[in-house]
Fold each of these.
Amino acid sequence: MNIYGDRGNVIALVRRCAWRGIEVTVTALSLGDPLDPERYDLFFIGGGQDREQMLVCEDLSAEKGAALRQAVEGGAALLSICGGYQLLGKSFLTWTGEYLPGISLFDAETVGGDTRFIGNVAVHCELSGAEGELVGFENHSGRTRLGPGCQPLGKVIRGHGNNGEDGTEGCVYRNAIGTYLHGSLLPKNPRLADWLLLHALRRRHGLEALPPLDDALEEAAHRAALDLVRRERSTAGGSWKIRSPWRKGKS
Amino acid sequence: MKLRLAAAVAAGKATTWISRRLGMGAGSNFPGRVMLRLDPHAPEEMASRLPRGCVLVSGTNGKTTTSNLLAAMLREGGMRPVHNRVGANLITGITAALAQASDLAGNPRGDIGLFEVDEATLPAAVARLRPRLVIITNLFRDQLDRYGELETLARKMDGALGALAPDAAVLLNADDPLVASLGRESRASLHYYGIECEEVTETSLRHAADSKHCRTCGTALTFSAHYFAHMGKYRCPRCGSTRPQASFTALRVRPRGSAGSEVLLSTPQWEVDLHLGLPGLYNVHNLLAAAGGACLLGLGREEVEKGVAGYATAFGRGERIPVDGRELFLVLSKNPTGFNEVIRTLKGEGTGLVVLAALNDRIADGRDVSWIWDVDFEELAPLPRCLVATGTRAHDMALRMKYAGLDPSRLEVRGDLKEALRTALGRAREGETVYALTTYTATLDLRRLLSRMGAAPALWEGR
């Protein structure tokens, strides 16, 4: 699945490797393609529209889901966003009453809501090695609640996050991350990009640290995005949520 | 004379005049809002007084260019279109445009309504204006935060076409699988336009393609030709549904970079060789939509030919504006497909270019700027010797260009548009062109800035 510029996350990972002289091969795994859990260091799964999400759900319910779980249990890094995040949990009950089984990689359940959470988000991330603020844009009607088997990715500073109630955003299990933040997420949050790369490379290549890069532009973009979210809150008098014109839609 | 309507029209005219005087903009939406408050039936009442009825143009890209081209053709045919020319395409904008073009009793001073309509507004516009012709250009994902997903949008549009009268006509883009699938339940007659020239095809489907699956059965479509994005000649391998036969076609297309294209246009009645002064294959689609619409409205070859020849660029869609001894080439670039086509045009201009890229995230642009990661900026990256990023999301644009492969030393970030424009003009040599790629509200801002500098006529001044 690829919606909302999910491709930007892959571009960021590939570029940040290339700048460090690390060779990368990107393989697109489509519906029905077999997944060899030993072959990859890092997985990415993006968001999708309703129909795509249903097709991918069926595909993951077959062997692919089990292979993905096996890879993550073995220490592979993974980033899943929005629709992908939801399918890696235990289940997703959509607003229209459709039940989509997940692959239970994350101890998380999602239920569709009647309004969409749309807008800029800032999150405080406590992931060791990637501590600090994350910035992104959310657009989802699904409300996700985490069980004890995984940790939230961070605490919401501005925005709605997992469910708009408990102040959490995203989840982490081993080296796998699920989140509602797109925008794209990784270019403007280079520390999280490097966290994923380091954990991906540590597993099979024993890398302990990544050579630093000149992230001046990335940090400026990060700061600008953070300023924007803060300003939005102060000028819009507390009601800056945009409601979707249609209740049904992408989840 | 209806008093409510008269009061609404007077208020609309007054509000437009005031908002222009105060420099609040072209006065194209707010007056409509005031009018609807005073007389909620103002648009249907005024539209029903147009002797030749209404034409609606909808779709993601190309609404403004298509309706401006069609307006030029209609004028050649002696008609006087009432037109929401600056692209205010909600009911409010259409209402304001009608008031601007009418006398104080609400009688329009034109004979045919020509309105571009926001995709999501189409059902309301059909219900209120009862059009005799609806043209749909294409459907791309655009502003997901506003419109929801494409299938939902398509269903709404199907509903709108289903509400048309049996003597109405619908003109659809055959090359867009989603658009071509619309209107099956409609009682109106369906007509199609499309490109029939294999030389302009691309080798593969781009990732920015949105409608790659059959709308009937969900199977991946097979393409025998790709024009751009998901435009092309397609067929469903499972249910056999296929691209409809088009009546209005481009049999030959020769692209000439930013100078436009040479097109052999064919209709059921006649053929003609045309020079289209607008760059990009998407403008060939706009030409076909306009020419097809003109034919369905009873115009002939001569009106179409003269309309195209005398066409003045819609604001911000490929305008060339002289400023400070340099030339500003202004192109609206607001979603992945539009932007990719702009990049295709720029590639014809060589390297060492000075580019001004303005990215805004206001409501009308879409609050979410994720879409810039779906644009093939990797193909733009080798071209600029200097790229000035500006707009409310200047940093996002700069970062996108860095990750596309542009050397950061060639990048400059200027949050303030005026300063950005000055910087870009300063980087260009005398006589050189600055390529300004701007999202919707950034185009308006830049246009306003240029008119304040005396370089461009104000938006609402007719040309």
Amino acid sequence: MTARVRTPRKPPHQTRTLVLDTISHAGLTLVALLFLFPFFWMVSNAVRGNNEVLAVPPRFLPTEYQWGNFAEAWLRLPFGKFFLNSFIVAGSVTVITIIVSSLAAYAFARLKFPGRESILVAYLGTLMIPQVMLVIPLFLIVSRLGLINTYQGMILPMAFSSFGAFLLRQFFLSIPKELEEAALIDGASRLRILISIIIPLSLPAIGLLSLFTFIGQWNNFLWPLIVVNGMDHATLPLGLTMFQTQQGTSWNYIMAGATLSMIPGIVLAIILQQLIYKGITVGSGFGGR
Amino acid sequence: MADIVSTQAKTAPRPRRRNKISAYETRTAFLFLLPSLLGFLAFMLIPIIASFGLSFTNWQLLAPPQFVGLSNYIRLLTTDPAFFNVLGNTLFFTVEYLVLNIVISLTLAVWISSLKRGQRWFRVIFFIPTFTPTIAVSIVWLLIFTPGGVMDYLFQTLALTVPNLLLDSKLAMQAVIIVTLWAGVGYNMVLFNAALDLVPQSYLEAAKIDGASAWDRFWKIRLPLISPTVFFGTVMTAITSLQVFDQIYVITRGGPGSSTATLGFAIYTNGFQNYQMGFASSLAWVMFVMIMALTGFQFWLQRKWVHYDS
């Protein structure tokens, strides 16, 4: 109050803030355009002839738009197969993760059994273990099981998620127990309760976990690199690097493939940034926890 | 996260005799837990133990493993000239990347939250690269950096005598850092932006009336209030950047020379190109110790700058 008396302030000058606002918007737009340049460069090179890719000086737009490159890349290089493999692997990992994590999360959240707390602590303890660290023993286990170069070998080691079990447990704990008690008295089994009461109420958490798992696997590179050899089981990221080393690199087709490989991620990013943003602003105060 | 477990333990006191755990419920619980526990054992617990055990062997995949005690670790620290180079590269990458990531993502977050319109669109634009495959992203940047590519053209046009980034052993790591920043700042930006929007407007208004400049309002009000989120972002970013692999595999393959070979890359090449599984496992444990040490250091440091008094 005293400060107000000492320094009387004029109301903010309308035109001045408008000018500042415009400058700020323009500046950030410029930064955003610079940021988008790699995407532009990718698409711009995906639709030109290969001899134009490394033209000096660089042409920012193709002289002739070859939109057929997308179809051509799809047919000429086995991008169709890479897509299918990526979908099989990312999709299966996601489905298995959701099933396994919900079952485990329900046991942790609602059922009493000896050792519950210690098992949960063991799960939490592994959250800090990096994937690179486990790659060698995982490779040895998978090769002992005879799963090198198979879908199972790509899927199974990735489908266990202590993070998923923990995340869903936290969500299940927030669902009132009363909702289940009536069903229990009516003689419903625990599995029945999980499927018809808990899971429908947990769709936001399950949705978030599915999207993160799917995109994580869609983008995963290290594990397929180790388990897969040859083209038959290669996923998109692996397939893209295979063309990098072939002689007479067809940059335009690779850029077309890269463009296609980014579509699921771009769609999910648009959906998820709002979810993450809301999750933080609504959920947990100042800590991003 | 450990505190969640302990509060759980406190609110659910150990069941007494009369409220004993029923055998039926225990059986149900273990059936529910079985798939997850099998996965945990086969793909987490056993690999962790195996990795530790392997790091004391000289296993090269073809011959049976022999126990060699600490000699892998001794070799790292004494005779292997590559190790300190790899360790240095990893630390250099992590420190420079971490600092730039936090500064850039915080700047973008503050800038975006100051806008009255269009916040959502800017968030989306900066966020998109975090969800695109690192490999695809790296290949696009490889084309940008390639000798005679756009980056070289840009340097020429600006009359800068910068050598091609990928051919210069002093600059190659900068190329990797640029790509990783481009791909990674968006996530922290969304986190920080969300936290900034939670700072009560009334605090900022009050400070403004008291004559605090925008600079002061940031350092004295907004940053302390969002410091737990910044801390969280810093810890997670440090953990992931110590593991950097994909970008390096595509853009530099550890080169030129071994100027961009990091721990993640060295684990891959030693294990899967030279088949030195034992030696690569000891590198993996070095990485684990570094992650623990850096995380511990950040938790120690947080007492000096993170405020939890909301």
